Structure formats: structure tokens, C-alpha cells
Amino acid sequence: QEYKAMVWLIEEIQKVTEKPICIDSPNARLLARIIEEGHLHRPGIVNSVNEEGDKCEMIFPLLAETQWEVIGLTCDDQGIPEDPEKKIAIARTIIQKSDFYGVARERLHIDPCVMALAAVPSAMKDFEKVICEIHDFAPEVKITGAISNISYDMPARKYVNICCMAYAIHEGLDSAIMDPLDGDLMSSIYACEALCMKDRGGRKYNKAYRRGKIGTNRREDWKMKI
């Protein structure tokens, strides 16, 4: 059922856009089958591999010498560790395997599996530590993350998410797994990238304002242009 649903959804999406598609499943065999059968018109992103079982060994050989990108989660057969040092160790192993199988580091996105602040008070500091250390030993590798995980079971979650995004961008976050139609979170990204000199002179920030994406000038119709 999952295979049929994924193939159908891929076909429907490709009818209306040429954007790369992220195929997402905990079932590595399913992801491998989708890639091997060539259902996608262009390379996208595989979400995901990790150190559970032989997922890296199954997926990485299929991506070598291609333009496919892949997300690597910092978890293993024991689950998601709270200890940031263990996450960093898992990330190192995934990166080493990507090197071995010929997957360019520039096409690897490590997801440090952000913990919930309500359960792990040091969640933000731990996230920052993992971002910094991975970029120290593998600057070509990109860091991503599901930002809203940190606000789980917290009131007024959007404020926690916005602050998490700001801190993470400052430390080197390259992308985020998030809702791009969340105007408040997108506004914080534009502002943070300008402040951190990722957007020199705030050109993208100003362009977003003029297009009505952020601030009091924000319009709802821009969402249809993504």
C-alpha cells in the first residue's frame, strides 16, 4: 500500500511542478525501489538514512555519481540519543560511509534530531553544539532539522520555533524541515540571514518585503507563487 501511495503521489505532484521531490519513508527498501524504478523525472532528496540496520549501505550505492541528495538522521539501533556527543559520533559514521560509497558531502544533509524542550531542557544548546561540531570537521556537509520538534508540548509554540530558528541559523543551520507557508517563521529566516551576513546587505530581506512576504506588507496571495 505504501509503495502504491508513494508512486501515485509522485505522479500527481509531477503533473503540476518540476521542483525536486523529497521521498520520505522509514522503509529503506521502499526508497531504494522508488529510486531504482525511476519514478521521478529528476533527482530529489531521500529522507532518510541513519545508523539503524543497513540503511546507509542500501541507499548510498544508489546515489553515488548522481545528483540525488540525502538526509542522514543521528539515530541508530538504540533510537535517538539525547547526548549530543553520541549524535556527533553517529553523524561522523554516516559521513564516512557517504565518502566510502561516493556520495558527495555537498549532497548530504545531517539532521541532528532536535529534541523537545519540554523533555530535554538543554535541547537548544545541544542542537547548537551538534551544528558547530559537524561543520568543524565536515564543512561541506549541510545541516537541517525539524525545527518545530523543539516546541512540542509547549504553549505558544510559534515563539519557541522562531527563537530556535534564529539561534540555529546563527550557528550555521543550512536548511529546515518546516512549513514554508508559516509567515512568521519565514520572516524570522529572512531577518536572521540578513543579520548573520548570509544575506549581505539584506537584499533578500528587502525583496521579500517588497513582494509582501514579510512584515505589515505581508500578503496572503504570495503563498500561491511558491
UniProtKB/TrEMBL annotation:
Which UniProt key words apply to this protein?
Methyltransferase, Transferase
Could you give a single Gene Ontology term from the biological process aspect? Answer: pteridine-containing compound metabolic process
> Per its UniProt record, what PROSITE patterns does this chain match?
PTERIN_BINDING (PS50972)
TM spans, by residue?
none
Q: Where is the Pterin-binding domain?
A: 1-213
Could you state one GO cellular component term attached to this entry?
A: cytosol
Entry's Gene Ontology molecular function annotations: dihydropteroate synthase activity; methionine synthase activity
Query: Which superkingdom?
Result: Bacteria
- Record-linked InterPro entries: Dihydropteroate_synth-like_sf (IPR011005), Met_Synthase/Corrinoid (IPR050554), Pterin-binding_dom (IPR000489)
Q: EC annotation?
A: 2.5.1.15
- Recorded family membership: Belongs to the vitamin-B12 dependent methionine synthase family.
Return the protein name: Dihydropteroate synthase
- What organism, scientifically named, is this protein from? Candidatus Blautia gallistercoris
Q: What is the lineage of its organism?
A: Bacteria, Bacillati, Bacillota, Clostridia, Lachnospirales
